[in-house]
């Protein structure tokens, strides 16, 4: 009989750890709702103890999204408490605890002699910390997942011992992470098989795997583990994640579905939502996927050569192993415009996976009409971008009141901005090497920023084709406290750049103590 594979999505936790992919609370909640539409079983919403923003995101997702919601915690009481509190209102909650178990992690992270004087003693301390952590986490929920970090490089003897001990302490899922993406499929499946043999109480827990893609083997390793008993796979949309990323959710799910003749496993994923979800994650993170990316890349269903085109036209399955529709890529080319009504917009958005309240719809309809005034035809890509764009929601700390830019072939670019913040309105002007540089300098002057924020990344992309296409700008700022991403959308790329910059600043302000950031916050 066909067996279910649990899909554990960690886009909002491990995925968000991709360099530069930082998401704000609003974006995380939106993605979590879409993951629920996709019907994932478990959503890892973040690492609550790591920052206030992480805590808030996990809490808001726990309060409003229908799935098992989990938060990550080290094997430390404070981490577990933060996770337990953030998850408090989730009808179905899980705490995910981890601790490093490979010799490299133990000697590298637990070198201090208070953990023991040699490897054996340190292993014993780590096992005790893990069991105590599981026992404490049990006071918040019965659903506890434990991960021996760097299991891929952990000695099988210690791995089996700690696994048995944490199950005894109450862990209900044992996740085996190939943290560094080091293993190869035969080796990884052998390890899972050995754990099954050596751990006497393994039948009391679900075996999960969590593979990284450093050698491009994350999906292959994950699939290899299923054949020896893994029943949960941890993965991310578009395969985003630390370094080379995590196993890609869409690839795993479609491999199981397309090759159901080979494997007798299924997932509950609503595959027709894969493309929408992928697009949403791309939009919010600013991490574009390569055109040849399996399942959701721009070329995944494109047939270029004459022989292939001819074959597909005669009989689709000559060169296609799945249909674009099965992953949610439709041929439907309905275009909306300024005469489209609210009803038309609502049903189009529903087809794209967005279910909105009346209040949200009022806001989006208003912004749709603004866009349709500037742009003759509004495509699905425009709507996705509009949905993902909160830079104009005007509820951040800084909002743009006015922007004027003077450019030309023989003038020095000059920008004037009027910014509202903290109950005041400040106006400033500046020149710059180019119009965007002039705008940013004028903004910095107007808010008198103390902290040194450097722009680490600036990217412009056209959302659709045509001369009236919207430009999407992604900006990443770096400070001593971390990186902050902002996105801005407009048919005018200079305005989009300013909106993106202000959104990145708003994300930055969200996690700082605002009072200490500015020289003269009330001098205007
Ligand atoms: O890669 C890893 O080991 C992790 C753990 C926290 C599960 O992300
Ligand atoms: Zn990971």
Describe the structure.
The termini are far apart. The protein has helices spanning 25-38, 52-64, 77-86, 103-109, 119-137, 156-169, 185-198, 218-226, 249-258, 274-285, 306-314, 342-351, 358-374, 380-388, 435-447, 493-510, and strands at residues 3-4, 6-9, 42-46, 68-74, 93-100, 144-149, 173-178, 206-211, 232-235, 265-266, 399-406, 414-421, 424-431, 454-462, 471-479, 482-490. The longest helix has 19 residues, at 119-137. The strands form four sheets. An eight-stranded parallel β-barrel has the order 2-3-4-5-6-7-8-9, surrounded by eight helices. Strands 11-12-13 form a three-stranded antiparallel β-sheet. The model is unreliable at 520-524 (pLDDT under 50). It has 524 residues and is α/β, with parallel strands linked by helices. The chain folds into three domains: 3-285, Aldolase class I (TIM Barrel); 341-392; 399-517, Double Stranded RNA Binding Domain. It is globular, with a radius of gyration of 25 Å. Helix 7 packs parallel to helix 8. It is built from 16 helices and 16 strands. The protein binds 3-methyl-2-oxobutanoic acid and zinc ion. 3-methyl-2-oxobutanoic acid (KIV) is lined by residues 14, 72, 98, 147, 149, 175, 177, 179, 210, 212.
């Amino acid at each position: 009989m066909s067996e279910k594979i649990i899909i554990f999505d960690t886009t909002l936790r491990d995925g968000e750890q991709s360099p530069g992919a930082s998401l704000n609370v609003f974006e995380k909640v939106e993605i979590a709702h879409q993951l629920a539409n996709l019907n994932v079983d478990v959503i890892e919403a973040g690492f609550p103890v790591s920052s206030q923003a992480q805590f808030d995101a996990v809490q808001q997702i726990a309060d409003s999204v229908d799935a098992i919601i989990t938060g990550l915690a080290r094997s430390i009481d404070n981490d577990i408490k933060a996770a337990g509190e953030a998850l408090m209102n989730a009808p179905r909650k899980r705490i995910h605890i981890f601790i490093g178990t490979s010799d490299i992690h133990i000697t590298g992270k637990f070198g201090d002699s208070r953990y023991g004087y040699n490897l054996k003693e340190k292993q014993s301390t780590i096992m005790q910390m893990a069991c105590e952590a599981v026992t404490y986490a049990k006071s918040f929920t019965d659903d506890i997942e434990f991960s021996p970090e760097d299991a891929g490089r952990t000695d099988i003897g210690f791995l089996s011992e700690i696994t048995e001990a944490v199950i005894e302490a109450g862990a209900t899922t044992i996740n085996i992470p190939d943290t560094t993406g080091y293993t190869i499929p035969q080796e990884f499946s052998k390890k899972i098989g050995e754990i099954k043999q050596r751990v006497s109480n393994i039948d009391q827990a679900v075996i999960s795997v969590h593979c990284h893609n450093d050698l491009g083997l994350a999906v292959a390793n994950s699939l290899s583990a299923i054949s020896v008993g893994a029943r949960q796979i941890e993965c991310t949309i578009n395969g985003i994640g630390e370094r080379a990323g995590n196993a890609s959710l869409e690839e795993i799910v479609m491999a199981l579905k397309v090759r159901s003749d080979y494997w007798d496993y299924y997932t509950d994923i609503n595959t027709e939502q894969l493309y929408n979800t992928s697009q949403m994650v791309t939009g919010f993170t600013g991490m574009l996927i390569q055109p040849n990316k399996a399942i959701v890349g721009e070329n995944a269903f494109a047939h270029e050569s004459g022989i292939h085109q001819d074959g597909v036209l005669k009989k689709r399955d000559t060169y296609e192993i799945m249909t674009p529709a099965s992953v949610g890529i439709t041929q439907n080319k309905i275009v909306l415009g300024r005469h489209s009504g609210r009803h038309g917009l609502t049903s189009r958005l529903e087809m794209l996976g967005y279910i909105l309240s009346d209040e949200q719809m009022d806001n989006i309809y208003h912004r749709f009409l603004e866009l349709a005034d500037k742009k003759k035809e509004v495509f699905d890509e425009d709507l996705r971008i509009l949905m993902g764009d909160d830079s104009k929601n005007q509820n951040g700390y800084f909002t743009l009141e006015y922007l004027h830019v003077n450019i030309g072939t023989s003038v020095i670019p000059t920008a004037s901005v009027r910014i509202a913040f903290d109950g005041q309105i400040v106006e400033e002007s500046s020149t710059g090497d180019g119009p965007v540089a002039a705008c940013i300098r004028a903004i910095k002057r107007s808010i008198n920023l103390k902290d040194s924020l450097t722009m680490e990344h600036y990217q412009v992309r056209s959302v659709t084709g045509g001369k009236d296409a919207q430009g999407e700008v992604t900006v990443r700022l770096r400070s001593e406290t971390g990186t902050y991403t902002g996105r801005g959308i407009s048919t005018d790329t200079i305005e989009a750049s300013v909106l993106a910059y202000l959104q990145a600043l708003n994300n930055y302000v969200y996690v700082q103590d605002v009072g200490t950031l500015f020289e003269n916050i009330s001098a205007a």
